[in-house]
Amino acid sequence: MNTLIINKEDLRHNINTIKNLIDVKDYTIIGVVKGNGYGLGLKEYAQFLIDNEINMLAVATNSEAIELRKYEKNIDILNMSCTSIKQEIQELVDNNIIITIGSRKSAEIANEIAKKGKNIRAHIKIDTGFGRYGFIYKDTEEIVNIIKNLHSNIKVEGIFSHFSLAYYKNSVSTKCQFSNFLNVIKILEDNNINIKLKHICNSPAFINFPEMRLNCARIGSAFLGRVDILQDIGLKKIGEMQSQVTEINMLPKDFNVGYLNTYKTNTETKIAIIPVGHKDGYNITIKEDMLRTVDKLRNLKHQIMSLLKKQTLKVIINDEEYDIIGKVGMYHITVNITGSNVKIGDIAKINVNPLYVDSKVRREYI
What we know:
366 residues; TIM Barrel; Lyase, Ornithine Decarboxylase, Chain A, domain 1; nine-stranded parallel beta sheet
């Protein structure tokens, strides 16, 4: 059985590394546990964060929020997505979830529910240039009027926005978004609207732009040590797939291995088959259509350099590193174990991003 291994000490190290960058006494770190806890298992990961003094969690959907509330009865949970569907807002309120108000319609529905005696906790979402949820940052008069006309049962505890390109330190758009956000906050304060929690930083922004941390941040990928930035702050990668060698074969010289015939043996080759593949989330990459032209060119450069240096994917068996040969399949990989004493049943360890690992794969914290 394949198992995703989560090293607790490494995970705790990453949490403390992030905490050490700020004064935790006066700061709120929101642990983002969307996507099945970034693949670490929603229930287990949420509890681990709480045990390590992360006292507020955030998710991306109603279903995640309701599921999390089943496990954690008292923790603060923020649903970061704005919805104007009355039934969804009602469900969030009934489960004591902090809702996001990011439109006139969502505010109207929240007011309607609050008038029936329901206490509602909310964060205001500002769209500073992402083009998704939230009040457009230029519409400050509307934002002021809507907040001032919220029912007294609605407590606005936070205000936030989201960066679209915080992975690069020289991002002009990130600085522009931050300026837009600060301008909204200033106008609100000029109108006697003072909101306690202010957050715009996700993991890459938190690391790349210390001046933008404000008094709250949403941390997700950094806790896993898989944040896409150039700066190394000593985070450890979380996520190791453990499987077993299920078959061993001898292949003759000049024999094709895997789909597309991209690999051919140079000599007689001893191979091990390991039942790990794309279905388990191994070797999954971001689609090219999600990248900018400059990123596509950079990605192409890395691929060419990888080919020139003959870099190959690796697997560890009995503390020794072996090359994966041929294409990674949906369910299997082929490993060159020529000259080794690897045998059927031996444990194989593979580095894998937990976010892409099938939720059916067992998780184990060690």
